[in-house]
């Protein structure tokens, strides 16, 4: 019997991407369901805006103040009805030549395929549900942007005894956008961040990615892990909310270590300040992250524009000197 496949997409305030790609997703004929989960968007998604494809199903999780990929997708995947799951972000769609999952499974007997190539394709995948259940889905102790897909891929590789197969780059289409939009620091995909905004987003991505790597090492996730639980609410059909106190928590020593690590990496990368200096400077000067991000004060901006560029002058001089040096015959 052919595999029944659910495409699963979670979106938070990404309506422009979702509405641009959902028709292309519907055009892929090898799926039986497209489950879309609205993760507490400020303006709720409406089913009528998603088109008339009867395979599209919309759910909403209320009460979430910030994006959390691991919890959002674990919830969505648990609500999907199929035995084969296709995780596609709101800015992605399958190429029409991508074959039925049964064809992908012809050699190994199972579907365990990840996207390949740039612009977020690596984070898209096709998996048999039994494999996902075996490893427990995404690690809900990870926060922010980065390493969640690598952690999942590593646990799958351990489970099947080899690296997951890679789809051709052209198998996944994607809307290109800046790292500022991907990390939530820009509200439109066509926003072009300035140099400081771009540096801020890259520093934040680096900080959360490294912290997530450490969190995964300290607290490995598995099929026995207790994931967050959700309950349907009176907000209407398809409305869900996190069950209080069900969200997994890091041990306090690990949590504090990750707070310190994110602070060191972010300010060190943004301002080109050594880790030891960041640790010695007071929190009032280089604070820890606030609700999901690091706030830049006027003195940070002043330092970035006036002092930080001075670090580059020795490299400029060395490059100039190397070009002036006569070549030996």
Write the layout of secondary structure elements.
Elements: E1 5-11, H1 15-26, E2 33-39, E3 56-62, H2 69-79, E4 84-87, E5 92-94, H3 101-104, E6 112-114, E7 125-128, H4 129-135, H5 148-160, E8 165-166, E9 172-174, H6 179-182, H7 195-218, E10 230-232, E11 239-242, H8 252-271, H9 275-280, H10 298-306, H11 313-324
Parallel strand pairs: 1-2, 1-4, 2-3, 3-11, 6-8
Antiparallel strand pairs: 4-7, 5-9, 6-7, 10-11
Task: Explain what this protein looks like in three dimensions.
With 329 residues, this protein is α/β, with parallel strands linked by helices. It folds into two domains: 5-176, Spore Coat Polysaccharide Biosynthesis Protein SpsA, Chain A; 181-219 and 251-329, no CATH class. The protein is 37% helix and 14% strand. It has helices spanning 15-26, 69-79, 101-104, 129-135, 148-160, 179-182, 195-218, 252-271, 275-280, 298-306, 313-324, and strands at 5-11, 33-39, 56-62, 84-87, 92-94, 112-114, 125-128, 165-166, 172-174, 230-232, 239-242. The strands form two sheets. It has a nine-stranded mixed beta sheet, sandwiched between helices. A two-stranded antiparallel ribbon has the order 5-9. α7 (195-218) packs antiparallel against α8. The mean pLDDT is 91.
> How many domains is the backbone divided into?
2
| Structural class determined from secondary elements | alpha/beta
The assigned CATH architecture of the largest domain is Alpha-Beta Complex
Give helix % range. 25-40%
In percent terms, what proportion of residues is strand?
5-15%
Number of strands: 11
CATH-defined topology of the largest domain: Spore Coat Polysaccharide Biosynthesis Protein SpsA, Chain A
Q: How would you name the oligomeric state of the polypeptide chains in this document?
A: single chain
* CATH domain class of the largest domain: Alpha Beta
**N→C terminal distance:** 72 Å
